[in-house]
Automatic annotation (TrEMBL):
Enzyme Commission code(s) on record: 5.4.2.12
Keyword Isomerase set for record: yes
NCBIfam families referenced in this protein's UniProt entry, alphabetically: pgm_bpd_ind (TIGR01307)
Pfam families: iPGM_N, Metalloenzyme
This protein's name: 2,3-bisphosphoglycerate-independent phosphoglycerate mutase
GO BP of this protein: glucose catabolic process; glycolytic process; response to blue light; response to carbon dioxide; stomatal movement
Length: 559
């Protein structure tokens, strides 16, 4: 299945040979920052990555992995794995998630689309339910977009609105949930002043309620379903602000893991369970943590947990969360049309491809790399291997994750001689970095480095070429900082841990015995980004990149 009309034949590169095995290694959450005790990559023993950095200065550099470099609206927008792998694979920059939604809301186009028309048919008699992450983190959702959607929906006939909130504390500071709930409550009060029956109906922490991904733990989605649809939860409150404050007062409580709660009226009755005739919108623009709840709302033959009651609703996502599954079938904002990805080109030019990661990032080296497209371009030339991630534990408990298993699988693929390209994501820096556990993240970075060594050793054996890079930062800075870069302290004088991604640049290194003499990084692309990597990889396979791709980072000089 190709993009129609595209000519797939790539021209030969005038100076770079074909036929070398190329390993493309993506370290997840591995940025470049000042060396200090909160830079887990610096603290960890990472001799392989260190040797790349300290080696030939023409074969190591930094690239941008956030903001406009990956299609996000502003330079304050940290990168993430989805937009990062889209850019790495597509070789061009496409307007992404938040930006697409911003454009649709600004222009009002969102209200003219099929998706909004579909849900608005419930406004006359039913309730509009909005479910999603409540923060300004900008990774999965943004509070300002929710407020604009509330405004636009109420102006276009929504008379009864219920918001089901998921508290963050992962992409934003832990504890910031209370402020976000207050902001939302104030706005809902304004809507009530205008005659709209608008209130918060339920809530819970994002890692414990609704927002699981990759079918890791369906219980997370069930807790959300029980609160949002059935109106059942272990905690009932009259008021969401007080409720969140009360739940946060428990020992070891954190925004990410707040238990589910429902808001009830004075008689104890839930104010907003989802019932027949209602409309539901999941407001997150990022896909990975919405796919499971989308299946629960959309699939008739759903069997992952007992839904008890399946209301006849009109459901839409803010965006379509899975293009291949066409899930959900209705959505408010159309996705970027990512066509002609590097993976598709290379397969059309006979490049036998192996892609591998563990469950939590497997989709990144396949689906996101291939332009939000599931499956193979050509089954005869491609093999994708998923190693099951640990489930039922947080990743700081086993910080080595499956790094060594991934390394072994990729090493074996290289040594088999069956593949021209092996593509891999090593997730440790990101997944363990998100837990905020500094000691565990140091262990994670060491394990990732060991996996890189296994892959580079195999490339050495077969006379191949390596490209080692990352998709965004995380593990290189684990502390919140003030404007001057000093660590921020909480009221008790403890450092404030940073669990989110960063806006730091990421490294890219090239090398291996198969790299042509005189091949080096160009000096005329100082602000290169992740989208420049695709053309670079195509060159290393001996091909010229398509003319509309972001320019390659490499050149060949006479030596």
């Amino acid at each position: 299945m190709g993009s129609s009309g595209a000519s797939w034949k790539l021209a030969d590169h005038p100076k770079l040979p074909k036929g070398k095995t190329v390993a493309v290694v993506v370290l997840d959450g591995w940025g470049e920052a000042k060396p200090d005790q909160y830079n887990c990559i610096h603290v960890a023993e990472t001799p392989t990555m260190d040797s790349l950095k300290k080696g030939d200065p023409d074969k190591w550099r930094l690239v941008k992995a956030h903001g406009s470099a990956v299609g996000l609206p502003t330079e304050d927008d940290m990168g993430n794995s989805e937009v990062g792998h889209n850019a790495l694979g597509a070789g061009r920059i496409f307007a992404q998630g938040a930006k697409l939604v911003d454009l649709a809301l600004e222009s009002g186009k969102i209200y003219d689309g099929e998706g909004f028309k579909y849900i608005s048919e419930c406004f006359e008699k039913g309730t509009l339910h909005l479910i999603g992450l409540l923060s300004d983190g900008g990774v999965h959702s943004r509070l300002d977009q929710l407020l604009l959607l509330l405004k636009g929906s109420s102006e276009r006939g929504a008379k009864r609105i219920r918001v089901h909130i998921l508290t963050d504390g992962r992409d934003v500071l832990d504890g910031s949930s209370v402020g976000f709930v207050e902001t939302l409550e104030n706005y809902l009060a304004e809507l009530r002043g205008k005659g709209v029956d608008a209130q918060i109906a339920s809530g819970g922490g994002r890692m414990y309620v609704t927002m699981d991904r990759y079918e890791n733990d369906w219980e997370v989605v069930k807790r959300g379903w029980d609160a949002q649809v059935l109106g059942e939860a272990p905690f009932k409150f009259r008021n969401a602000v007080e409720g969140v404050k009360q739940l946060r007062a428990a020992p070891k409580a954190s925004d990410q893991y707040l238990p589910p709660f429902v808001i009830a009226d004075e008689s104890g009755k839930p104010v907003g369970p989802i019932v027949d005739g209602d409309a539901v919108v999941t407001i997150n623009f990022r896909a990975d943590r919405m796919v499971m709840v989308a299946k629960a709302f959309e699939y008739e033959d759903f069997d992952k947990f007992d839904r008890v009651r399946v209301p006849k609703i009109r459901y839409a996502g803010m965006l379509q969360y899975d293009g291949e599954l066409k899930l959900p079938s209705h959505y408010l904002v159309s996705p970027p049309e990512i066509d002609r990805t590097s993976g598709e080109y290379l397969v059309h030019n006979g490049i036998r491809t192996f892609a591998c990661s563990e469950t939590v990032k497997f989709g990144h080296v396949t689906f996101f790399w291939n332009g939000n497209r599931s499956g193979y371009f050509n089954e005869e030339l491609e093999e994708y291997v998923e190693i099951p991630s640990d489930s039922g534990i947080t990743f700081n408990v086993q910080p080595k994750m499956k790094a060594l298993e991934i390394g072994e699988k990729v090493r074996d693929a290289i040594l088999s001689g069956k593949f021209d390209q092996v593509r891999v994501n090593i997730p440790n820096g990101d997944m363990v970095g998100h837990t905020g556990d500094i000691e565990a993240t140091v262990v994670a970075c060491k394990a990732a480095d060991e996996a890189v060594k296994m892959i580079l050793d195999a490339i050495e054996q077969v006379g191949g070429i390596y490209v080692v890079t990352a998709d965004h930062g995380n593990a290189e800075d684990m502390v919140k900082r003030n404007k001057t870069g000093q660590p921020l302290l909480d009221k008790g004088g403890k450092i404030q841990i940073l669990t989110s991604h960063t806006c730091q640049p990421v490294p890219i290194a090239i090398g291996g015995p198969g790299l042509a003499p005189g091949c080096r990084f160009r000096r005329d692309i100082p602000t290169g980004g992740l989208a420049n990597v695709a053309a670079t990889v195509m060159n290393l396979h001996g091909f010229e990149a398509p003319s509309d791709y972001e320019p390659t980072l490499v050149e060949v000089v006479d030596i």
